Amino acid sequence: MLKLGIIGCSKFVYDFIYDCTKRYPLSLVGICDSKPNAEAFRARYQCPDVFEDYKEMLEQTRPDLVISFPNYEDQHEVARDCLLAGAHVLSERPVCLSSNQARDLVEIERQTHRYVMARLNRRFTPSYVMAKNVVAGPEFGRPTMYLAKYHASAYESEEIFIWNHAVHHLDVARYLLGDIILLHAERIYVDPRRFGYNISFRSEGGCIGVIQTSSLQCGEYPMERVEVTGHLRNVIVDNIRSVQYNRPAPKRETLDEMSFIEGGDTLVWTPNFAQLNNFTFYGFENMFEHLVQCISSGQKPTLHMGDTIKTLELVERLCELAGMERDKL
User: Fold this and answer.
1) Is residue 294 pLDDT above 70, yes or no?
2) Torsion over CA of 314, 317, 323 and 324, rounded to 10 degrees?
3) N or C: which end of the chain has fewer CB within 10 A?
4) For the chain, how many helices (H) and strands (E)?
5) Helical H runs in 113-260?
6) CA Rg, the chain, in Å?
7) Which of 35-49, 104-118, 148-162, 264-278 is predicted least confidently?
8) CATH 3.30.360.10 spans which residues of the chain?
9) Could you give the residue range(s) of every CATH 3.40.50.720 domain in the chain?
């Protein structure tokens, strides 16, 4: 069993994240948060030790893995302290608020052989993994065009929206296409909580793309769609919950030909909920499984700060293109 600690156990962690650990060999050894949040968590979950100082928790419990969901501005410092205490970290995104902070963590990862995984969970959702496998297959051909939209309800601030929300969408493009270069961004501003961007980019493989992301929509209806075009084919992920792979249809002229053809026709995947199961759209269980397996086998996870820094550099570039570049931390 790996010893698990939690820093910041309210909201998302309380409602969902900790439940996702139940299938894996993790033993909760301590939680850290303000007294009201900690007591609410303890009332729901069995927890041996409660702390208000996370450094004290690290010192006394010596966890192997920390789920870290601290205040937005504190994520880098907390992740840094966890690495130096000998713990791997699953951190709320973006972990760092600059590529300079990310480089600091990359160096500490190298020294400690402990790793930080940002909560960029779309890389582990079944729909995007299936789309990735399609795009990488020889039948699909070289990706040529990419079209994506992601919308959200009103956000706390524009900075948090870019670093906490848009970072997801830039990372998905990298996941599906490889490294990309941002070329242009247009910004629409309604008020301090509502804004949006059209972002154009080119991948190193020559694919051109557009990402539309905003906080102008109601979060109660479908907000997300990604389409990648290849050679005579495209693959579409619709609102995370379905995948459609469009391929050239065979010519049909007689009744004998009215059947599904291997290698042709459109393939559609939607989860079957006819029976009870614990299936998740959002990939959290898959993310935990990957991280726990890597820790147990001494391997580097695929999503570590050396990879995530490339996404954070894209966020900085977006801020620059949108005229919002912040001071380098």
Assistant:
1) yes
2) 60
3) N
4) 10, 14
5) 126-136, 158-160, 167-177
6) 21
7) 264-278
8) 126-281
9) 2-121+284-313
Token pair of 229, please? 């075009």
Q: How far apart are CA 162 and CA 139, in angstroms?
A: 35
Task: State the alpha helices, DSSP H only, in the chain.
Answer: 11-12, 35-44, 54-61, 75-84, 99-112, 126-136, 158-160, 167-177, 284-297, 305-321
Q: Which CATH superfamily is domain 2-121+284-313 in?
A: NAD(P)-binding Rossmann-like Domain (3.40.50.720)
What are the structure tokens assigned to 245, written together? 């792979």
- Give the model confidence (pLDDT) of 224-276 as tens digits: 999 999 999 999 999 998 999 999 887 777 766 666 677 778 999 988 766 55
Q: Which pLDDT does position 277 carry in this prediction?
A: 63
CATH topology of domain 126-281: Dihydrodipicolinate Reductase; domain 2 (3.30.360)
Q: How many residues does the chain have?
A: 329
pLDDT at 27: 95
The label of the residue with tokens 């996370």 reads 54
